[in-house]
Amino acid sequence: MAREESKALLDAFNKTTACYHHLVLTVGGSADSQNLREELQKTRQRALELAVTTGARLTVALRDKGLTTEERAEFERLWVAFSGCLDLLEADMQRALALGAAFPLHAPRRPLVRTGVAGSCSGVAARALSARSLRHEAERDFDRADLQELEQEVLQVGKMINEMEMKVNVPRWTVQARQTAGAELLSSASAGASSAVSVPERTGPCDLSKALAATVFSAVLLAAVALALCVAKLS
Amino acid sequence: MAAIAGPGTPGGRLRAQSPHLSKMERVVVSMQDPDQGVRMRSQRLLITVIPHAVTGSDIVEWLAQKFCISEEEALHLGDLLAQHGYIYPLQEPYSLALRPDETPYRFQTPYFWTSTLWPAAELDYAIYLTKKNIRKQGALVEHEKEHYDQLHKKINHTWDLVVMQAREQLRAAKQRRKGDRLVTACQEQTYWLVNRPPIQSSDFYKREIELSRKALGRTRVKSSICLEAYLKFSSQHSLHDPIMSGCLPSNPWITDDDTYWAMNAPMVAVPTKLRVERWAFSFRELLDDPVGRAYFMDFLQKEFSAENLSFWEACEELRFGGQAQIPDLVDAVYQQFLAPGAARWVNIDSRTMERTLEGLCRPHRYVLDDAQLHIYMLMKKDSYPRFLKSDMYKGLLADAVIPLETKRRVFPFMRKPRHSSPSPALLPTSGEPPATGSTAGGDREG
Question: Which chain B residues are within 8 Å of A108, Cβ to Cβ?
Answer without folding.
Answer: none
